[in-house]
Each structure stands twice: as C-alpha cells, then as structure tokens.
Amino acid sequence: MNLVFDKVFAPHYGEAIDIAPNIQRITVNNPSPFTFHGTNSYLIGNDTLALIDPGPIDEAHKTTLLRTIGGRPVSHIFVSHTHRDHSPLATVLKEELGAILVAEGPHRSSRPLHTGEINFLDASGDTEFMPDICAADNSLIEGDGWALRSIHTPGHTANHVVFALEGTDILFSADHIMAWATSIVAPPDGSMSDYMASLDRLLKRHDKVFFPGHGGPVTKPKTFMRGLKAHRKMRERAILERVKAGDRTIPAMVKVIYRETDPRLHGAAALSVLAHLEDMVARGLVRTEGSAAIDGAYWV
After folding, report:
1. Cα separations in angstroms, 8 against 25, 179, 220
2. How far is CA 101 from CA 87, 93, 136, 160, in A?
3. What is the pLDDT along the chain (300 residues), one digit of tens a residue?
4. Are 146 and 50 in contact (CB under 8 A)?
5. Which of 14, 23, 64, 177 could join 173 in a cystine, given CB atoms 3.0 to 4.6 angstroms apart?
6. Rounded to 5 degrees, what are φ and ψ at 228?
7. Measured between alpha carbons, how far is 282 from 277 in angstroms, rounded to an integer?
C-alpha cells in the first residue's frame, strides 16, 4: 500500500487558527528536520479551556497562547509525551494559569540501557516534567463542554498518549501519527514492537480526523495507518535483505537503505534501524551477539 505524505502546511506563527468548532491550533516557531514547521498546541473549549501540548520554552509562543486564552480559565493542560518540543512550557503555564497537568506519566525509556550503551536522545527528554494526574489508559477527563479520553500509544516514547475528543470523530495524535512524515522510533526512548502494537490499536477505532503534533491533519486515518504499517514492514524487509546481502553493521545498512534521505537524518535513521533490529532479533528473524546494539554485528 502506497504511503502518501501531505507536506502542505501553513504554520501561521503567532496566530490561533480555528480548525474545528471550539478547537484552535497554535504552532510554535521551532522548525527543524524533526519538528517540520514546528510543534502544534491545541486549545479546546469556549469558556473553560483545555490545552494540549504547550510546547517548548518559547516566549513568543507563550505570549500567543495567553493572548488567545484571553483571561479565560484553563482547567487542564494535557501532555502527549515528554520530549522537549512538547512538554516544558506546560510546567510554566501550570503555575501561571492554575491548571492541572495531565499525562501518562513522567519521562522514562522504553527499556533499561544495556551495559555501555549511550542514550543518544537523552537531551531531548524532559526529565523534570511531573504530571498532577497520571491518566490511566482509556480514562476520561471532563471539562466545561469537552471531555478527552486518554489512549496509551507507546512506541515513539514509552509514555506517549493520544487524546480522543468524546462525542466527535477527532483524535489528537501527537507524534504517533503525522501526515507529513513517519514517527521517529529510536531506542531506548522508543520501541518498534510497542509502536506497531499501538498502530494496530488505533486501527480498531473509527476516528475520522487526526490532529497531530506537527503539520496538518490526517484526514483518512485508517488508510494512512495501513500505509504506515506497510511502510514499516517494507523497511523491515529492506533491513533483512541487507543483512542477507552481507551488511553486518547498522551504518552499512543505513548507507544503502536511506541513500536518498537528508544526511542530517542519518543518525535518526540508524536508531530507527536499531528499533527494527531489536524487534527482529526478538522474533528470531536476525541474530546478534547479546542484545541488539547500535554498534552490533548482525547475521541470519
């Protein structure tokens, strides 16, 4: 199944954009190869509001959020996961707005570090974030005219969660599903087996539109998720082919598989290959000595 990305997106920095009844999107001016045009924050409600993913510490974005809020109460701030482009401003705004912080839990890795292993994404984790409410899977938090259901979707991070707006066909998919690119799954922060299981879980739902953490909406979620799943399976086959062809190391595999990818993303690509190899080793498709590692050797 072909996977078609939608990279048409106008961030409108410094503005709140109405995207659905009582839902506004405000995009942080923090573009990068990993964040696309920037991180999306969402305000939900009319009188008393909910805020999803305030983003990084950014004074201009904070000013835009507060101007859009316009003195209205914000009862809850929801955080999809604790990467620094999503969560740090939540703690600041909690103090200013008197809001309750809601997330799956504090930052953590998907698995313990192996002996001698370095977490290359350690700096991207907001280890200081602490929610007031650790939202259980499938739990519902209700506000003034809105209710958000927390659906645990580990994979991109261990504590990743998406939020479904009850009574609508809208789901806030954060970094799990984005229209512009595939999600980065990088051990030990992320887990490919968890990511694939989370994909299958959302495929069983009937949401009609996803509002993601970066870029524009996913308007045909089931079709897009099937494409994502097929893409991951294709990548797995490509890795297996490279191992069978004699590539023993991850850099050798990346050089071939990602030859048309921006070289700035090759480090992330290597971690993505590692995520696949962890899963493939666990399933007996590929062999290695000890645990799958970024500097390991692989064979069939």
Report:
1. 16, 9, 15
2. 10, 10, 14, 15
3. 679 999 999 999 999 999 999 999 999 999 998 999 999 999 999 999 999 999 999 999 999 999 999 999 999 999 999 999 999 999 999 999 999 999 999 999 999 988 888 887 788 999 999 999 999 999 999 999 999 999 999 999 999 999 999 999 999 999 999 999 999 999 999 999 999 999 999 999 999 999 999 999 999 999 999 999 999 999 999 999 999 999 999 999 999 999 988 888 888 899 999 999 999 999 999 999 999 999 999 999
4. yes
5. 177
6. -60, -45
7. 8
**How far apart, in Å, are the Cα atoms of 152 and each of 17, 37, 45, 191, 296?**
27, 26, 23, 14, 31
Secondary structure (DSSP) of 116-142 = T---TTGGGB-TT---SEEPPTT-EEE
Task: Say if residues 174 and 53 touch (Cβ distance below 8 Å).
Answer: yes
